[in-house]
Automatic annotation (TrEMBL):
This is alpha-L-fucosidase. GO terms for biological process: fucose metabolic process; glycoside catabolic process. Residues 343-481, 547-694 form the F5/8 type C domain. It is an enzyme of class 3 (hydrolase). The lineage of its organism: Bacteria, Pseudomonadati, Bacteroidota, Bacteroidia, Marinilabiliales. It comes from the Bacteria. Belongs to the glycosyl hydrolase 29 family. GO terms for molecular function: alpha-L-fucosidase activity. It comes from Draconibacterium orientale. Keywords: Glycosidase, Hydrolase, Signal. GO terms for cellular component: lysosome. Residues 1-22 form the signal peptide.
Length: 694
C-alpha cells in the first residue's frame, strides 16, 4: 500500500509538472508574416536603375529612357551570388526617385518599354522573379513614393498612378516577401518639364492606410517596410549598425515616413513600444548605393563586413546588404569576392557549437517542469525554451563544458513569439575556481551575438539581470572563431607618415609603394615610415605559422599635406587642423548659418584637378555639407568663378567620400564654401579634405 501511494505521488508530481502553464505573452508580439521575415535574417538589396547609367545617386527625372541599356544583364548571376553568400532573398529597386520603372508599366512612358534594351521588350522585374524561383530565393520590391519625373507628383492624380504601379508589381511577379518604401519624399525635380521644387505633407499625402490595403489584398504574406513600418522599420542609419539597445517594439502611431526626428528618437525602438516593428539594417557594400566606377576600389573589406554582421544580426536586426549592379547588369566581381569572404568567415566563426548538448542548470525553472528546463537552451530546437516562474526576472543558466574550453563568441536568443522581454544580462566564465564577468549587455530579442576576448573556462554562466517578465530563452550557443587573415589597413598622417596595420596580432606585413602587387619578397613592414610624394601603397598580411596570405590592400595617396594650414576665419582654431590629420574619425564641425567658408593655404602652388570631401563621420548630430562651391586662388585674395559647385546627393544617409574632378588649375589657396547643411541640425563639417593634383 505504501508503495502504491508513493507511485501515485510521483505520478501526480509528473502530471503537475507537465501541465505547468506557459508564460503569458508580453505585448506586442510578432505576426506570422513578421516571424517568417525574422527567420530570413539576411538578404540582398539591388540598386540597379537609371542612376546606374547616369552615374548618380538620385536622378532628377529628366533622363532619356534610352540611356538604360545593360549589355550583359543576368539576374541569375545575382541570384547565384546571393545564394552562395547565404542570403535568403533579393529586394530590387523597381522604381527609384527619378521615376524610371524597370518593368513595362502602363502608368508612365518613363520605363524600360521606351529603352533600346531588348528593343523595349525587356522586364527586369520578371527576369529577377524567375531567377529567384530557380535559386529558391524570395523576391522583394522597392517602389519609391517620390517621383521626380511624373508631372502629376504632388496632386491626387499621382496617388492613383502610384497605386496602379503598386498593383502591377503585386500582381504580375509571383510571391513578394517585402515591399520597401523610402522616406525621401518631395523636393526639386523634372516633373514633366516643370523643373521646380514640390513639397508634400509626408504624413497625409500618400494616404498610407489605403495604400497598404493593396499589399494586404494582393500579397498578404509580404511585410511592409518604411520608417514607421507597419511591419518592418528602418534602423535609422545606412552604416550597417543596429544599436547596443535595440527593441523590436515601436511607438508606431507617432511616426511617419521621412520624419525628420526619426533617427534620433525612434530608430532604436522603445521598451514601451505599442507595436512589434523590428529593425532592418540596410547598408551598401560600396560607399554609394548605385554603381560608380570610381568606387571599384572602395568595396567594403572583410573587417568592415564582419563588423556589420555582428552589429546588425548580432543586435536584434535583420541585415540587408546592397549590391550596386554595374552597367553590364552584373554584380561586380569585386563585390562578389568580398561578400563570399564574409560568407566563409561567418561559416567558420559558427562552425562548432561548444555548448551543444552540454549539461545546463538553472537557478529557477518554471514550475520545476522539464518542459522549461535549462537544457532547452542547448538542444538546438527553436520550439523549446528555458523559462522561470512568473515574477522571477533575475535568474541564471550555467553551462558546464566538462573540461577547460576556449571560446570567443556567445549567442543568445529569446523566443520572440512571446514578446521581447530581457532588459539586461551578463556572461561570466569559471576558471581557476572563480567566476569572472566577461561581458554585460542590455536587449536580446531574436538574436544577440557577443564577440568576446579569447577565454578559457570550464563553465559559462548566463544571467538575466532585468526583464519585463519571466525570461524565455530558446538558444545559447558558444563558439571559437578562428583567426582571420585579411588585408591590412593602410593610412597616412598629415606629414606623410604611412601606417599599416594587421587585423590580428602575430602576423607579418609586406608592402610596395609603386603600385605593384606585394609578396614575401617585398619590403617587410616593421614600423611607420615617411613617404613625401604620391603613392599607391599595396600591402598583404602573411601568417608565418600557417603560410596563409591575405588579399592585397590598396591605398592611393596624393601629395602629403605637410605645408597645409587653415587660414581665414578659423585659422586660430586648433580643432580646424583635424581636417588634415589623416584620421577619418575626427572632424572640424561648426554650428553657424550658411554660407560657411573653409579656406586653406597649401603652402605652394599646385596644379589642382579635383577635390575629395569626407563629412563628419560621427553617428549622432554630425556636420554634413549638402550644397557647395569650390574656389581657387593664387594669392588668397582674388577668387575667380567656382571651379566646382553642386550638391552631394544622398550624403545625409550615406556620408562617405565625395569626389569631384575638373579641368586643372594652378593655385595655392582653396576656398570650400558650404552653402547649406544636409542635417536638420544646421551644422557643417569636414572630417577630411584632399585635392587631386596633376
Amino acid at each position: 500500500m505504501t508503495n502504491r501511494l508513493f507511485y501515485l505521488f510521483v505520478l501526480l508530481i509528473a502530471v503537475s509538472c507537465s501541465n505547468v502553464t506557459p508564460p503569458e505573452p508580453v505585448l506586442p508580439v510578432p505576426s506570422e508574416r513578421q516571424l517568417a521575415w525574422n527567420d530570413m535574417e539576411y538578404y540582398a538589396f539591388v540598386h540597379f536603375n537609371m542612376n546606374t547609367f547616369s552615374d548618380m545617386e538620385w536622378g532628377f527625372g529628366d533622363e532619356d529612357p534610352d540611356l538604360f541599356n545593360p549589355t550583359e544583364l543576368d539576374c541569375r548571376q545575382w541570384a547565384r551570388i546571393c545564394k552562395e553568400a547565404g542570403m535568403k532573398g533579393i529586394i530590387l529597386t523597381a522604381k527609384h526617385h527619378d521615376g524610371f520603372c524597370l518593368w513595362p508599366t502602363a502608368t508612365t512612358e518613363h520605363s524600360v518599354k521606351n529603352s533600346s534594351w531588348k528593343n523595349g521588350e525587356g522586364d527586369v522585374v520578371s527576369e529577377l522573379a524567375d531567377a529567384c524561383k530557380e535559386y529558391d530565393l524570395k523576391l522583394g520590391l522597392y517602389l519609391s513614393p517620390w517621383d521626380r519625373n511624373n508631372p502629376e507628383y504632388g496632386n491626387e492624380k499621382y496617388i492613383e498612378i502610384f497605386r496602379a504601379q503598386l498593383r502591377e508589381l503585386m500582381t504580375n511577379y509571383g510571391d513578394v516577401f517585402e515591399v520597401w518604401f523610402d522616406g525621401a519624399n518631395g523636393g526639386t525635380g523634372y516633373y514633366g518639364g516643370a523643373n521646380e521644387e514640390r513639397r508634400v505633407d509626408k504624413l497625409t499625402y500618400y494616404d498610407w492606410e489605403n495604400t497598404y490595403k493593396i499589399i494586404r489584398e494582393l500579397q498578404p504574406e509580404a511585410v511592409i517596410f518604411s520608417d514607421a513600418g507597419p511591419d518592418v522599420r528602418w534602423v535609422g542609419n545606412e552604416h550597417g549598425y543596429a544599436y547596443p539597445t535595440t527593441w523590436s517594439n515601436l511607438l508606431r502611431d507617432e511616426i511617419y515616413g521621412g520624419m525628420p526626428e526619426y533617427s534620433n528618437k525612434y530608430s532604436r525602438g522603445q521598451e514601451n513600444g505599442t507595436h512589434w516593428v523590428p529593425a532592418e539594417v540596410d547598408v551598401s557594400i560600396r560607399p554609394g548605393w548605385y554603381y560608380h566606377k570610381y568606387e571599384d576600389h572602395k568595396v567594403k573589406t572583410l573587417p568592415q563586413l564582419l563588423d556589420i554582421y555582428y552589429n546588425s544580426i548580432g543586435r536584434n536586426g535583420s541585415l540587408l546588404i546592397n549590391f550596386p549592379v554595374d552597367t553590364r547588369g552584373l554584380i561586380h566581381e569585386k563585390d562578389e569576392e568580398q561578400i563570399l569572404k564574409l560568407a566563409e568567415a561567418v561559416k567558420a566563426d559558427f562552425a562548432v557549437d561548444l555548448a551543444a548538448g552540454k549539461k545546463a542548470e538553472a537557478t529557477n525553472v518554471r514550475g520545476n517542469s522539464k518542459k522549461y528546463k535549462a537544457s532547452n537552451v542547448t538542444d538546438d530546437d527553436p520550439d523549446t525554451y528555458w523559462s522561470t516562474d512568473d515574477g522571477v526576472i533575475q535568474a541564471s543558466v550555467t553551462i558546464d563544458f566538462g573540461e577547460e574550453t576556449t571560446f570567443n563568441r556567445f549567442v543568445v536568443q529569446e523566443d520572440i513569439r512571446l514578446g521581447q522581454r530581457v532588459k539586461a544580462f551578463s556572461v561570466e566564465a569559471y576558471s581557476n575556481n572563480k567566476w569572472e564577468e566577461i561581458d554585460s549587455q542590455t536587449t536580446i530579442g531574436r538574436k544577440r551575438i557577443l564577440r568576446l576576448p579569447e577565454t578559457t573556462a570550464s563553465k559559462v554562466r548566463f544571467t538575466v539581470q532585468d526583464s519585463k517578465a519571466c525570461p524565455v530563452i530558446t538558444k545559447i550557443g558558444i563558439y571559437r572563431a578562428p583567426k582571420v587573415i585579411i588585408e591590412p589597413k593602410i593610412s597616412r598622417t598629415k606629414d606623410g607618415i604611412i601606417n599599416i596595420e594587421a587585423f590580428d596580432s602575430g602576423l607579418d606585413i609586406y608592402y610596395t609603394v609603386d603600385g605593384s602587387n606585394p609578396d614575401v619578397n617585398s619590403l617587410k613592414y616593421t614600423a611607420p615610415f615617411n613617404w613625401a610624394q604620391k603613392a599607391i601603397v599595396k600591402a598583404i598580411v602573411v601568417d608565418p605559422n600557417e603560410n596563409r596570405t591575405s588579399t592585397v590592400s590598396v591605398a592611393e595617396f596624393d601629395i602629403p599635406k605637410t605645408l597645409w594650414k587653415v587660414v581665414g576665419k578659423y585659422k586660430d582654431d586648433e580643432k580646424a587642423n583635424l581636417i588634415f590629420d589623416g584620421n577619418e574619425n575626427t572632424a572640424f564641425t561648426v554650428d553657424e548659418s550658411a554660407p560657411v567658408d573653409f579656406v586653406f593655404d597649401l603652402g605652394e602652388s599646385l596644379k589642382i584637378a579635383g577635390f575629395k570631401y569626407l563629412p563628419d563621420q560621427q553617428r549622432f548630430d554630425p556636420g554634413i555639407i549638402f550644397n557647395y562651391k569650390l574656389y581657387l586662388s593664387s594669392d588668397g585674395k582674388n577668387w575667380k568663378q567656382p571651379v566646382a559647385k553642386g550638391e552631394f546627393s544622398n550624403i545625409r544617409n550615406s556620408p562617405v567620400w565625395q569626389t569631384n574632378s575638373f579641368s586643372p588649375v594652378n593655385a595655392r589657396y582653396i576656398k570650400f564654401t558650404a552653402l547649406s547643411p544636409a542635417e536638420e541640425n544646421g551644422k557643417v563639417g569636414i572630417a577630411e579634405f584632399e585635392i587631386i593634383t596633376q
